[in-house]
Design a protein that fits this description.
This protein folds into two domains: 166 residues, Rossmann fold (3-Layer(aba) Sandwich); 70 residues, Alpha-Beta Plaits (2-Layer Sandwich). The chain has a seven-stranded mixed beta sheet with strand order 4-3-2-1-9-10-11, with helices on both faces. A four-stranded antiparallel beta sheet has the order 5-6-8-7, covered by helices on one side. It is an alpha/beta fold. Helix content is 36%, strand content 21%.
Length: 253
């Protein structure tokens, strides 16, 4: 059983996952995305048994804190804006917030009808899901703003995101979380999750960590996601089934 290394020794294992398209179905307005019923309770249950359980997402930390029912002392951890934001961490990138805000203002004033500009504090995403004809505009706008501001450009699912050009992503977060673990899995559905897969491969090669890369598939899954995965599940419903299977049957001996 592919999940056995995690189940057999949860006190030395970790479970890390994405939010959108993984815990929550993709929706036209990102602000309305919510985890599937039962997903949050299941994550907290896993967090009470596993060494590390975390959600690493492009969403702001405040959004994750609210919709993952995080409270002071919670064992479930959350990392917002691909790891740039986490509970208790100093805001090392505060100076970039002004830059991002300027991009958001320009996007809101110039965007064609139907394009959604999502402000995330440390990043801004231009969504053209509800206006597919505006894709060329969104791509051109994002490229021009990246050149103007020095922000990094991250194309994603029917969207273009701009964020600080720093060496922090889902891969660096996973590598940090798994530093003392013997086994770890990551569940993701988009190109932004591929660095986490790469980090898991590096952990397996350098330290012999048992890793499980879980691809959450959909019609919009990027090329290469399933090819790099050890396990493939069908959408957030498949994620919920896998997380349920990760509930340890009994405490460590």
């Amino acid at each position: 059983m592919l999940l056995a290394p995690l189940l057999h020794q949860p006190s030395r294992a970790g479970v890390v996952c994405d939010f959108d398209g993984t815990l929550a179905p993709i929706v036209e307005d990102p602000a309305t995305a919510r985890p599937l019923p039962g997903a949050v309770e299941l994550l907290h249950r896993l967090a009470s048994r596993y060494a590390t359980v975390a959600v690493v997402s492009g969403r702001p930390l405040a959004f994750l804190t609210e919709h993952l029912d995080l409270s002071p002392g919670s064992r479930l951890r959350a990392f917002g804006v691909y790891g740039l934001e986490t509970v208790g961490a100093e805001d090392r990138f505060a100076h970039w917030r002004t830059v991002v805000a300027g991009v958001a203002e320009r996007a809101e004033s110039q965007a064609p009808t139907g394009v959604l500009v999502e402000r995330k504090g440390l990043s801004v995403t231009v969504h053209y899901r509800t206006a597919p004809e505006a894709e060329p505009w969104a791509r051109a706008f994002a490229r021009a703003e990246a050149a103007r501001t020095g922000l990094a450009l991250h194309p994603a699912r029917r969207s273009e995101e701009l964020l600080p050009p720093v060496a922090v992503d889902k891969g660096t977060v996973v590598a940090e979380l798994a530093a003392e673990l013997a086994a770890v899995c990551f569940l993701g559905d988009d190109s932004g999750d591929l660095p986490a897969f790469t980090a898991l491969d590096a952990l397996a090669a350098s330290r012999g960590v048992v890793v499980r890369k879980v691809a959450v598939v959909s019609d919009e899954a990027p090329a290469g996601l399933t090819e790099q995965a050890d396990i493939v599940v069908d959408g957030p419903v498949g994620v919920l089934e896998l997380l349920t299977a990760l509930v340890p049957p009994s405490p460590d001996p």
